[in-house]
Recover the amino acids of this structure.
């Protein structure tokens, strides 16, 4: 043993240390974390085995993680936590040419950033069906990604009246609707009104976004004029509570200024419960007023659409349990999470068991509708569900996850997270049938658990095994900034294509034969139909005149997996990537005269470097 | 002279019903060639772990993966200056189905108006056709591997792709093997040869040779 060979001075030191320990000096690490490192106790070998996906093997789950203010969605494989791809949604992404070609540029509009928070997978009967993924964005927008090709297909908005689309994009059990609700209230219609009249003149908005069941096309159906609270998160009722939508709200104080104080005064804020089927009917029968081209219904004038459920304190997450009867509201400034009973809530509505109203919207009696206050710990934010009626609540302040049981309301386990968990996502954990095997904590702060990369620290996402009584930490992953919520879906539910079939390409400027490639001029408009195929961009050169409006339509006529081609035009800020079978166009004004090279930017073949040509601007 | 007489007797002799059935079966087997491939070429490379597959029918070429593999093979081959593998390049696809049909009709004729001569004719023709087709296929492969464009991006020495078996060509493991239709044709051919042999044997047994007939008389 090493200690047996210690020299005398060292022995003295050891003795001194022992004395110091005995006299209780400040420990080097918190007692709660002493001995066990800084995380949940894990069997390393077991954790390694459970997360190791051997080269060539495939993951069990997809995780779609929101990219926050990066405006993107990041796709990870579980349990390996490997980053598989990035889906650009609200921000240009030169890697795939997103935001550079005419279509995606038009879809992005003038905004080149977005704050994307809560992805929602499309559902059938309350279960993920693997068709679409929706995600909200703060600038009043919502996007649809088609999981057939993992591409953003539609961005709806910025929609009128609504400001700061945070409580979104939660879909209803058969994807009838996605929802939007405002974090920021403002005058509706928007006009300059001083913040001193906030409490009465400013309004929140809840918007129903109708989804076409065949195409997924989103359209704005209606809006509800709400009191000026900050609407935060939401979840659609399911099973028993199907037809209802729940949104948390804070700042029910209707305060302005230093909100961290002024909006934290009341012990209870509200969960707004919306009977969206009733709103649907009201809208169909012509209720409400048209404001800025949108049907806006004031619940004061059409009673029975919205009820307020008191929930302490400044709640963040509201999550409906798989059976639909329990609604879990997590007040982030307290130590309990509140469970409401849907049946009791319905009874209270029938009996007009109200304690008051806010702008004509009835407030239900707290004691009549609540089932339990579960002492989960400090700063509960968001709840996900597993099997056997277990629920998992993230605790920001405690930096932990609490595991507790629906029905008995007993907290059975706690897992420390590194650090300060925000949302959490369980495998299919917000559906009617959660899988109960994996749980990912989406942490807000990171420190010391990865090679340092300077002050801009990466975000951390931690994978936990929840198959046993005790949660077990399996893996630390460092995810792209900044994950808010995520969706975890069984891989076999998603069936992506690998190339766009030639037959499906109906683009009017598509050409599938190099002999048809060429340049046509119509006045000052020049159209270049270009073919990309290993390893030539045809035509290899073209001439235009200064001031011409040039449209280059590039068709990648490959039908082979991963044979992408790029079209980068130097000095013109143009770079698109065309997938096999796809046609993309770029339109620009030939402002600068001279000679400009274009080339394939996406490595394609042994002769990729030869895949180039020139545009001559006379 | 006596033997010749005997051969003539075989040629003119009507065929036994069992022999006719064999010929009929041989004709029926040819139907397979209208539905299933004759030959298959499969090429594996590190970046093509599932392989690129090319099925050769008597009347066309079909690429694996919904036709995509043949396009991919052509894309790859253009780097070494090989001509495109396209239907139009193969005159075989015009005459092969016709010849197989004609042979089938000849077999049917043999089965009905059955003589040793007809059977011998169709068997010899079939063997000739089979041998010619194989040669033609081999020659085609040879030409593809040797008529390489002198301006190709990648210059490779002319090569002979495998006709039967596996071979490493650059980064590709290439396998070439007969498929169902070739086996059907081989079986058809075996049936014909078998029928011919059996008819011959029957003919010999039914009519003893003249010298054998003569021998007892001489003793």
């Amino acid at each position: 043993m090493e200690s047996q060979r210690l020299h005398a001075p060292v022995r003295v030191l050891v003795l001194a240390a022992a004395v110091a320990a005995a006299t209780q000096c400040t420990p080097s690490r918190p007692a709660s974390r002493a001995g066990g490192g800084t995380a949940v106790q894990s069997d390393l070998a077991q954790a390694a085995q459970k997360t190791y996906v051997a080269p060539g093997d495939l993951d069990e789950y997809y995780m779609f993680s929101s990219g926050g203010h990066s405006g993107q969605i990041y796709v990870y494989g579980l349990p390996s936590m490997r980053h598989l791809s990035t889906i650009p949604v609200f921000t240009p992404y030169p890697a795939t040419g997103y935001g550079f070609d005419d279509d995606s540029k038009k879809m992005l509009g003038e905004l080149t950033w977005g704050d994307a928070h809560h992805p929602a997978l499309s559902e059938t009967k309350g279960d993920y069906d693997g068709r679409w993924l929706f995600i909200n964005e703060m600038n009043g927008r919502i996007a649809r990604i088609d999981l057939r090709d993992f591409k953003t297909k539609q961005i709806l908005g910025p929609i009128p009246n609504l400001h700061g689309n945070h409580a979104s994009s939660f879909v209803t059990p058969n994807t009838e609707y996605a929802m939007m609700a405002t974090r920021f209230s403002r005058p509706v219609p928007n006009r300059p009104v001083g913040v001193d009249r906030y409490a009465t003149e400013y309004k929140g908005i809840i918007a129903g976004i109708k989804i076409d069941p065949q195409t997924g096309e989103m359209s704005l159906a209606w809006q509800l004029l709400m009191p000026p609270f900050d609407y935060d998160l939401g979840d659609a009722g399911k099973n028993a509570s199907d037809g209802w939508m729940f949104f948390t709200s804070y700042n029910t104080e209707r305060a302005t200024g230093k909100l961290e104080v002024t909006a934290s005064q009341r012990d209870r804020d509200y969960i707004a419960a919306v009977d969206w089927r009733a709103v649907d009917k009201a809208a169909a029968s012509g209720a409400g007023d048209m404001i800025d081209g949108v049907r806006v219904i004031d619940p004061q004038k059409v009673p029975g659409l919205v009820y307020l459920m008191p929930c302490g304190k400044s709640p963040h997450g509201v999550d409906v349990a798989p059976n639909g009867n329990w609604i879990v509201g997590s007040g982030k400034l307290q130590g309990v999470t509140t469970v409401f009973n849907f049946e009791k809530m319905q009874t209270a509505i029938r009996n007009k068991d109200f304690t008051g109203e806010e702008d004509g919207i009835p407030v239900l009696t707290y004691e009549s509708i609540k089932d339990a206050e579960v002492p989960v710990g400090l700063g509960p934010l968001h709840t996900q569900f597993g099997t056997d009626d277990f629920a998992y609540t993230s605790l920001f302040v405690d930096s932990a996850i609490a595991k507790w049981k629906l029905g008995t309301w007993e907290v059975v386990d706690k897992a420390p997270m590194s650090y300060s968990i925000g949302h959490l996502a369980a495998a299919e954990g917000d559906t009617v049938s959660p899988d109960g095997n994996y749980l990912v904590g989406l942490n807000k702060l990171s420190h010391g658990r990865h090679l340092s990369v300077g002050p801009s620290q990466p975000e951390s996402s931690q994978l936990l095994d929840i198959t046993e009584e005790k949660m077990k930490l399996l893996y630390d992953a460092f995810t792209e900034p900044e994950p808010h919520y995520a969706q975890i879906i069984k891989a076999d539910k998603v069936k992506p294509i690998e190339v766009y079939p030639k037959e499906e390409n109906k683009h009017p400027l598509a050409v599938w034969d190099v002999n048809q490639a060429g340049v046509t001029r119509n006045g000052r408009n020049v159209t270049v139909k270009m073919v990309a195929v290993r390893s030539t961009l045809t035509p290899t050169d073209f001439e235009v005149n200064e001031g011409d409006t040039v449209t280059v339509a590039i068709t990648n006529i490959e039908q082979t997996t991963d044979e992408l081609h790029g079209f980068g035009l130097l000095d013109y800020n143009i770079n698109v990537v065309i997938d096999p079978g796809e046609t993309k166009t770029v339109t620009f004004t030939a402002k600068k005269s001279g000679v400009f090279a274009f080339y394939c930017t996406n490595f394609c073949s042994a002769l990729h470097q030869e895949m180039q040509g020139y545009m001559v601007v006379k | 002279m006596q033997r010749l007489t005997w051969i003539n007797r075989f040629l003119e002799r009507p065929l036994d019903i069992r022999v006719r059935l064999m010929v009929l079966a041989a004709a029926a087997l040819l139907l397979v060639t209208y539905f299933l491939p004759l030959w298959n070429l499969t090429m594996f490379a590190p970046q093509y772990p599932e392989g690129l597959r090319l099925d050769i029918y008597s009347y066309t070429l079909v690429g694996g993966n919904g036709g995509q593999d043949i396009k991919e093979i052509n894309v790859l081959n253009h780097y070494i200056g090989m001509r495109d593998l396209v239907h139009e390049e193969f005159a075989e696809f015009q005459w092969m189905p016709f010849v197989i049909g004609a042979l089938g009709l000849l077999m049917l004729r043999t089965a009905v108006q059955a003589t040793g001569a007809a059977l011998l004719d169709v068997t010899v023709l079939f063997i000739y056709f089979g041998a010619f087709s194989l040669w033609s296929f081999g020659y085609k492969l040879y030409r593809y591997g040797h008529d390489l464009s002198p301006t190709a991006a990648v210059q490779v020495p002319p090569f002979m792709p495998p006709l039967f078996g596996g071979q490493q060509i650059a980064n590709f493991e290439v396998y070439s093997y007969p498929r169902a239709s070739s086996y059907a044709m081989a079986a058809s051919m075996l049936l014909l040869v078998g029928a011919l042999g059996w008819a011959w044997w029957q003919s010999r047994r039914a009519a003893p040779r003249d010298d054998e007939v003569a021998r007892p008389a001489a003793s």
